[in-house]
Automatic annotation (TrEMBL):
InterPro entries found in the cross-reference section: PAN3 (IPR030844), Pan3_CK (IPR041332)
Major location category of this protein: cytoplasm
GO aspect biological process, one term: nuclear-transcribed mRNA poly(A) tail shortening
Coiled-coil ranges per UniProt: none
Cellular localization per UniProt: Cytoplasm
Protein's name according to its UniProt entry: Pan3 C-terminal knob domain-containing protein
GO molecular-function terms, A-Z: ATP binding; poly(A) binding
Gene Ontology CC terms, in alphabetical order: P-body; PAN complex
Residues annotated as signal peptide: none
All residue ranges annotated as the Pan3 C-terminal knob domain in the record: 15-151
Keywords: ATP-binding, Nucleotide-binding
Length: 157
């Protein structure tokens, strides 16, 4: 605009040029900040998903392995029994009539407590033997980390 102006406006300064483009600059800046916020939100969601996936994988590895090369009775240890009971809490819940309960929110809530090592307690019940165990998420986390550590150590040998 300034370059296309008649010669009498040739005394325009840099301030005049900035005044002409400042509206567009602010719009672009606001769009960039909004985009960065959206990316940060998506990254946070993916990080949360990755954390929970890692926890579910550790739980599955710890409970599904019947033995290790250096420990034939790995699967029969009381630690694995607790983890299997916790898995039943996550995936095997049912109502009074025996119908499966599907509650993603409850499972995610329990996994988050396990990941944090929360002091809250979970009542774990055995399907076959009817055993009932009241255990804190903190204790469950220690059991899971210890069990996974045994598997990781056996994998490195």
């Amino acid at each position: 605009m300034l370059l296309l102006s008649p010669p009498e406006a040739a005394h325009a300064s840099v301030h005049d040029a900035v005044a002409l483009v400042s509206g567009r600059l602010m719009t672009r800046l606001a769009q960039g900040v909004g985009y960065a916020d959206a990316l940060r939100t998506e990254l946070s969601k993916e990080q949360e998903n990755g954390r929970l996936l890692r926890l579910v994988l550790k739980l599955g590895l710890a409970t599904s392995r019947p033995s290790l090369p250096a420990n034939e009775s790995y699967g029969d240890h009381p630690d694995r029994y607790l983890l299997r009971l916790f898995q039943d809490l996550l995936y095997g819940s049912s109502d009074e009539e025996g119908r499966p309960l599907i509650s993603f929110a409850q499972a995610v809530h329990a996994l988050n407590k396990l990941d944090l090592g929360h002091d809250g307690r979970a009542l774990l019940t055995g399907r076959e033997d009817g055993a009932m165990v009241l255990v804190s998420y903190h204790e469950l986390k220690q059991v899971l980390e210890r069990s996974f550590g045994e598997i990781a150590a056996a994998a490195e040998q």
